[in-house]
């Protein structure tokens, strides 16, 4: 799940937010919203593209970015899996501590 | 919080789990802090767990492998960032340490004594707020079904 690692960065999260809001943006338009250098922006875009968070298409000299829907869905599924896993894990924890509690009560008697 | 109350809330970039356990906080803390205990409950059903090393102190690392029923091994690396016995445990999940599924989310587990038992609150903080907000929309419908299954499972446990 490279997408999460890619989104662990504040600037990259801002970029994704911006692209999500506008649908499509060129790298120049994205860069205008930040105070960092064009090479830095281009590095962030490269990371987001390789993590499949953003799609990129070329038109003439422009690079146009949009949100990668299937990757976003994958992240959603991943979080739902985590929630499901933890709920089942806590169920198991509950059964386990009750078992220990019983065992220890028996020892005391 | 009511007894046996189980709640899962998605809020911003956090997932919050709330549960009541009918045991003292010391016992809950104990089963979170020792490899022998963790191997009994941490793995999902059908999984076994091997702890490679565990240093249950501030900044300490817990490295373990979950062995899946399909023969797959899943490496995990967790760093304990703040521990206060028996009040809370805060840790970071450092993924599998191999870079492929590196997800750096943070978990806070808080134990609050209520009479004879303990309320456990666990907060998971994910890097991206937008994702969780989107999940939240889907989540209501899905969770309803899951809770139902969970309750049924618990009921069947009682009948055993």
UniProtKB/TrEMBL annotation, chain A:
Alphabetical list of SUPFAM superfamilies matching this protein: Winged helix' DNA-binding domain
Keywords: DNA-binding, Transcription, Transcription regulation
Any one GO MF annotation of this record: DNA-binding transcription factor activity
Pfam families xrefs: HTH_5
Entry superkingdom: Bacteria
Gene3D superfamilies named in the record: Winged helix-like DNA-binding domain superfamily/Winged helix DNA-binding domain
InterPro entries in the record: ArsR-like_HTH (IPR011991), HTH_ArsR_DNA-bd_dom (IPR001845), HTH_MetalResp_TranReg (IPR051081), WH-like_DNA-bd_sf (IPR036388), WH_DNA-bd_sf (IPR036390)
NCBIfam families, alphabetized: HTH_metalloreg
Name the UniProt record assigns to this protein: Transcriptional regulator
From TrEMBL, chain B:
Coiled coil: none
Domain Activator of Hsp90 ATPase homologue 1/2-like C-terminal: 22-157
SUPFAM superfamilies referenced in this protein's UniProt entry, alphabetically: Bet v1-like (SSF55961)
Pfam families, per database record: AHSA1 (PF08327)
Protein name in UniProt: ATPase
Family per record: Belongs to the AHA1 family.
InterPro entries: ASHA1/2-like_C, START-like_dom_sf
